[in-house]
Amino acid sequence: MTPRFARFAAIDWSGAKGARHKGIAVALCEGGDAVPELVTAPTGVWSRQGVADWLMATAREIPTLYGFDFSFAPPFVARGSYLPGDVVPQDAPAFWAYVDAICDDVDLGAASLLEVAHRRHFYFGKADGVKADYMHNRACEAQYNAGGGGKPSTVYDAIGAAQVAKASFAGMRLLHHVRPHVPVWPFDPLPVAGSLVVEIYTSIAARAAGRPKGRTKMRDKGALNDALLALGSQPYDGAMPDDHGADAIVTAAWMRQAALRPALWAPPALTPQIARTEGWTFGVN
Prior knowledge:
Elements: E1 7-12, E2 25-30, E3 37-38, H1 48-59, E4 64-68, H2 92-102, H3 111-117, H4 139-146, H5 164-178, E5 196-199, H6 202-208, H7 221-230, H8 243-258, H9 272-277
Parallel strand pairs: 1-4, 4-5
Antiparallel strand pairs: 1-2, 2-3
Helix pairs in contact: 1-5, 2-5, 6-8
């Protein structure tokens, strides 16, 4: 089954500490070829809770495919646990609930999980030993790498402002809150109708738009509009957005095309165990 959506939203995400995050960008488009537009936060700068509230409100209005750029779960299949040696749930929705319960960080943050509750599982620097010992990946990431996409970051790498660790665990808190209202693929089956949340990787969209490997960021309007043209979209005529906004705009346009491809909803390597524990990045086949 290929689900049908009327709108497509791409969210470039942030796990930064605090309550407002310039690293969050939301782009939204309808079917056809209209250019995706950036959605302005009610307060001017998005909070994570604000994104959750917006999603739950808009999901009821029009069937929308929402894509979030963070890992929906840590690796599980290769090691049999998200955090080997620690007592934690064994499926993703229960793990999201666990993360939400132990983190009291502001605005759905999850830094305390990495820095305190489960510190030994995360690599913060040389004092933690050999970095390679922490670089565990999910099945979908191995599949992406094997297909020439490159090696994605791991949720156990906690170095640097751009790392995905805090973003992903904060995102798991969001998933815990929105899942009672909107299904999350592939942990939930594809809905016959209505909205859906999926994991995305903005580099997949950029590569599909013709951006070369290792140069997926678009720094000027010419590069942005070349990417949109390749994805069947009208050009963007506003002021050039920052990296987060440009990524979200291009990814929303890509989602509009990709959602119509049945093969992307049924990756051959996506087993029931993977769907229950690790999930899958939409677009990896």
